[in-house]
Amino acid sequence: MQSLRTLKVIVLGTQGALMQSLRALIFAKEKTRVNKNFWRIGTRYVDLDLFDKGYPYVWGSGVTDWGYTDYLKNIQSGDIIVAGGIEKVKYIGEALEKPVVVFPSEDAAFYAKYGIAEASAKKHKKLIETFQPYEDDINDAVCIPIKWLDIDCSALRMPPQEHGGIKPLNKAGIDWVLKLLEGGKPEPAIPAGNPLLTFTAMDFETGSGYRNSVCQVGLVRVVNGVIAETYSGLIQPPNNFIREDFAEIHGISPEDTKYAPSFAESYKRWKHFVENQTLVAHNMKFDYGCLSACLGEFCGITADFKTYCTMKIWRGFFENAKLNTCCRENGIELINHHNALADAEACAKLFILAVSKGMDLKD
Fold this sequence. Notes:
This protein is globular. The protein has 14 helices and 15 strands. It is an alpha+beta fold.
């Protein structure tokens, strides 16, 4: 059986303060626990190294911004954990105990009312020692200690689940997980659909007017109209230079990207999102220019992709074709505008809507 540790975990997102790549988690309640439901919890902030050690966590404002506190309080020791994207599942584990706040902070009282206690220097010694090198970065991290189980989940897809937040699995998802836990190998659940609805939406934030000054990337992989995998990460621009007026827009400072990977190193982590894929962006001229400039200068690769631009598609329907306007007029929620992942997700939803309406895609 393939070791679970060798399997790739799907990257979900970041909001600028964390300098590490991040991973998404889905949590489910164990079948044998009486009167318990199956859950999935999509976390925005999980450090790669700590994840592998069994310590996924929700960091800082992400706990409240994405509505996690109400659901974190329901996690109990013994709960089954399924890690992956909306469709792909590649890790399954067991929660060793309820979530805890890793380091004491002024927010400890806030977490306490949700049943999330401060980490104990004695009880959580190993956990705290694992996080210690990251103390200055995470501070208010809420951690769920986990033991990964030796289950081969490679190449499996569970039925599509509702995207975002922390919500119960649907019945198909529950049945899928149960079959896997019982030793079966569920058939991959990949719905048939319009080939136009399989694509990658992308968004780049830059440190200056130069297209090679990318400081954040956001990518959303859509399969048959379902958001299946997302990635977001900070990138250190050349000389770690970020103009103040640009920082005011996207909230990313040189301090945030000081330890971030170069574009070439970052690209290794997410190149599967774009290679041999159809790309979609809101103002593709800008984002494709960023991708092309960085691939050429830092990776020695010539960009050659099939593309669609949601700004072109929706131009003329509203007063302007800005991303926030298109989202507002179409009833699409856009939280944290100018965060690369948030903008890429909004773009993906605009494109899905355009395809479903049979609109002119203006390719």
